[in-house]
């Protein structure tokens, strides 16, 4: 079974096209997005908000810090 729905892939595709044209902006700051990874993340986030089939975000786990002796 597919992890992502059709609606999600359309949103990511649209975000990638906007990035290529230079019109994709990031959230609060409104800076121009140039990273492919960030464009995909924005597309998935938009799809998630619209209720498309997208897996949950992985929760950030605590990194174990090594102590020096």
The Cα radius of gyration reads 16 Å
Label the structural class: mainly alpha
The shape is flat
Please trace the helix and strand order, writing H or E for each element: HH
**Poorly predicted tracts of residues:** none
> Percent range for helical residues?
40-55%
Number of helices: 2
Distance between the termini: 49 Å
Number of strands: 0
Mean pLDDT across the residues is 86
Largest sheet: none
Strand-residue proportion: under 5%
Secondary structure layout plus pairing:
Layout: H1 6-21, H2 36-49
Helix pairs in contact: 1-2
Describe the structure.
By secondary structure, this protein is mostly helical. It is built from 2 helices and no strands. Helix 1 (about 5-20) packs across helix 2 (about 35-50).
Task: Give a nutshell description of this structure.
The protein has 69 residues and is mainly alpha-helical. It has helices at residues 6-21, 36-49.
Keywords:
69 residues; mainly alpha
